[in-house]
Each structure stands twice: as structure tokens, then as C-alpha cells.
């Protein structure tokens, strides 16, 4: 190679767009253009994909360790064992259970259709007082929970009864947690072991739909 060729300047930069100059492929030197190589790897997704896989593996390891530790700790936590009443006529036993727990005015979360059932009317006739909440919809919102909390306090209730479906039960449990921790929002109590206080007496009832006829 002659001296003139050895000392020749690098090929001029090619302009792709207004502010994206790149060197021709034959003039790319990884030794001198390491920043350009890193930029190319990031733009092409090579580095991003590896980082995502690494993050997923670390998260999976953390979750497995947390699950194993919680499973061991749950064996020694003082869980309260609920009383279960099953079979025909279970709803009629509710006033007796509330009386045994010292509850005088429950707030009953149920739909208007459920409140019109003869079994429900017969049950409420045995209660000294009660308040009804009928505004729970499917996939209840936090605003619904806050309405339940306000009504519970305004009417002087001392216990909660939820008649499901799942939405009334979930909303009533969230309201019970809010009553136990009045200085915390529902979002702040998301997760495990966030309440850690005794909630108001709570009862959940769920009926079973009759089977379909064989025809």
C-alpha cells in the first residue's frame, strides 16, 4: 500500500435525515466506535431483550422465595377460624349468630331482589334493627366501598352481613377493612397482612342456584 493511500482521510459521513450522520459500513471500526455499537445494540433490541429476560428471572426467583417463606410463616400465624353454617335454613340462623357475637344492628349488603325473598324477610323480622345497602354492582368500585363506610357510620351499625354473589362479599370485606383502618385508603391496604387489626363482626352468605330441569 502506498503512502498516499495509507494517509488518506476517512470517507465522508453519510447524512440520513437532518441530524443522524452515520459512517459507511466499510468504514465502521468497533475499536474506535464503541458508543455507536452500543447504540446499535440498544436500538435493535438485543440488549433490551437480555435485560428483560434477566429481570423476569429475578422476579420469578423472588416470588418463589416469598411464597415459600409465607407458606412456612402461615403455619404459625393466629388465624381466626370462621363458623360455617351450611344446608337448608342456614339464613334463619343468622340472627342467633349475630346475637351471640353481641351485634345489635348489622348492615346487610344485598340486592333488592334478595331483600324481597320470603326467607330474607323472615330473617330480618328477628333482628332488633338493621340497615340495608343495595348499590353494589358487578366489579364494585372504590367509590361504592366508601359509600358503604359512610352509611355504616351514619346509621350506627356494628356489624356487616354480605349476601353474595362475589361482588357484594368483596365490597363488604373492603368496607370492613376501611372501618378497621380508617386512616388508610383501599389502595394503601392492597396486598398481604396490611390490615392487622380486628375488623367489625362480618358474616357472608351465599345461596346455590337450583339445578336446571332435565329437559
Give a written overview of the molecule.
- This protein is an alpha/beta fold and 215 residues long.
- The chain has helices at residues 3-6, 34-44, 46-73, 94-100, 112-115, 118-124, 142-154, 166-180, and strands at 14-15, 21-22, 106-109, 131-133, 159-164, 202-206.
- It is built from eight helices and six strands, in the order H-E-E-H-H-H-E-H-H-E-H-E-H-E.
- Helix 8 links the parallel strand 5 and strand 6.
- The model is unreliable at 1-8, 10-18, 22-28 and 208-215 (pLDDT under 50).
Protein topology:
Layout: H1 3-6, E1 14-15, E2 21-22, H2 34-44, H3 46-73, H4 94-100, E3 106-109, H5 112-115, H6 118-124, E4 131-133, H7 142-154, E5 159-164, H8 166-180, E6 202-206
Parallel strand pairs: 3-4, 3-5, 5-6
Antiparallel strand pairs: 1-2
Helix pairs in contact: 7-8
How would you summarize this macromolecular structure in one to three sentences?
The protein has helices at 3-6, 34-44, 46-73, 94-100, 112-115, 118-124, 142-154, 166-180, and strands at residues 14-15, 21-22, 106-109, 131-133, 159-164, 202-206. It is of the alpha/beta class and 215 residues long. The strands form 2 sheets. It has a 4-stranded parallel β-sheet with strand order 4-3-5-6, with helices on one face.
What tags apply to this protein structure?
disordered C terminus; four-stranded parallel beta sheet; alpha/beta; 215 residues; 8 helices; 6 strands; two-stranded antiparallel ribbon; disordered N terminus; elongated; 41% helix
Amino acid at each position: 500500500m502506498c503512502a498516499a493511500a495509507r494517509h488518506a482521510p476517512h470517507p465522508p459521513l453519510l447524512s440520513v435525515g437532518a441530524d443522524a450522520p452515520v459512517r459507511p459500513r466499510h468504514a465502521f471500526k468497533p475499536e474506535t466506535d464503541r458508543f455507536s455499537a452500543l447504540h446499535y445494540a440498544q436500538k435493535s433490541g438485543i440488549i433490551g431483550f437480555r435485560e428483560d429476560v434477566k429481570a423476569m428471572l429475578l422476579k420469578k426467583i423472588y416470588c418463589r422465595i416469598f411464597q415459600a417463606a409465607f407458606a412456612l410463616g402461615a403455619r404459625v400465624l393466629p388465624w381466626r377460624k370462621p363458623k360455617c353454617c351450611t344446608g337448608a335454613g342456614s339464613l334463619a340462623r343468622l340472627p342467633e349468630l349475630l346475637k351471640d357475637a353481641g351485634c345489635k344492628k348489622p348492615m346487610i349488603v344485598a340486592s333488592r331482589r334478595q331483600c324481597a325473598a320470603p326467607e330474607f324477610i323472615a330473617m330480618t323480622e328477628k333482628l332488633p334493627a338493621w340497615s340495608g345497602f343495595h348499590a353494589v354492582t358487578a366489579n364494585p368500585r372504590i367509590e361504592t366501598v366508601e359509600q358503604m363506610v359512610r352509611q355504616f357510620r351514619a346509621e350506627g351499625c356494628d356489624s356487616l352481613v354480605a349476601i353474595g354473589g362475589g361482588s357484594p362479599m368483596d365490597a363488604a370485606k373492603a368496607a370492613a377493612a376501611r372501618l378497621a383502618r380508617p386512616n388508610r385508603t383501599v389502595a394503601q391496604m392492597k396486598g398481604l397482612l396490611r390490615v392487622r387489626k380486628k375488623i367489625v363482626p362480618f358474616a357472608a352468605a351465599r345461596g346455590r342456584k337450583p339445578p336446571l330441569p332435565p329437559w
